[in-house]
Specification:
The protein is 38% helix and 19% strand. It is α/β, with parallel strands linked by helices. The protein has one domain: Rossmann fold (3-Layer(aba) Sandwich), CATH 3.40.50.150. The protein has a seven-stranded mixed sheet with strand order 3-2-1-4-5-7-6, covered by helices on one side. The chain is globular. The termini are far apart. Bound molecules: S-adenosylmethionine. S-adenosylmethionine binds at residues 24, 27-29, 31-34, 56, 58-60, 63-64, 79-82, 85, 106-108, 121-122.
């Protein structure tokens, strides 16, 4: 049987795109952007300010990072596993003249030891894998999660309506 190369190429691209888009589900969580209102509340809850370094684990389109820089005047960065989201956030940062530290890779291997605030909207499975590393951050580092909480840690603040949980290293 003769291979139709153009059709095979298009099929390959479509499959690659599907794979790239869906595999984050198994790595931590699928892309589901946090509403801007909730992002603002997460950063306010953590009392983000110009002295902070905000780090988003799985930054999606980078909205938490960009708001931290633009509205809260913090330094910010993050890691994202999905290359298309990563490239889009890089382009947006360039267009806006911002310089966040954006990394392509997995949250589990990322170095976020500089962070004073870590934001997380990942599954409970991802929480389990990140817990030890988070607990080892500098004392006073704030960790804000949306929707998923750490079952054995005591949050210092909870916003029940927005399902936000604030933890502080040293008071876990
Ligand atoms: C629920 S979305 C949250 C996006 C963004 N933080 C927000 O609040 O709008 C989860 C994001 O994490 C990414 N992700 C999933 N597993 C990851 C992992 N192990 N390391 C880094 N990023 C991951 C997904 O590709 C997706 O963009």
């Amino acid at each position: 049987m003769a291979i139709n190369y153009p059709v095979a190429f298009v099929l390959f691209l479509a499959l690659a795109f599907l794979f790239i888009s869906f595999w984050p589900v198994f790595a931590g969580a699928n892309w589901q952007p946090t509403s801007m209102n909730r992002v603002r509340s997460m950063l306010k809850m953590a009392n983000a300010n110009k002295d902070d370094y905000v780090y988003d684990l799985g930054f999606g389109d980078g909205r938490i990072i960009f708001m931290a820089i633009e509205e809260f005047h913090a330094k910010a960065g993050g890691v994202e596993i999905e290359p298309i989201k990563f490239i889009a956030a890089k382009i947006y940062a360039k267009w806006k003249g911002l310089e966040p530290d954006l990394k392509l890779g997995s949250a589990y291997g990322a170095d976020f030891s500089r962070a004073t605030i870590v934001t997380i909207f990942l599954s409970s499975f991802a929480h389990k894998l990140l817990k030890k590393k988070l607990a080892g951050l500098k004392k006073g580092t704030r960790i804000v999660t949306y929707y998923w909480k750490f079952p054995d840690w005591k949050p210092v603040k909870v916003d029940k309506k927005l399902e936000l949980y604030l933890y502080e290293v040293g008071k876990l």
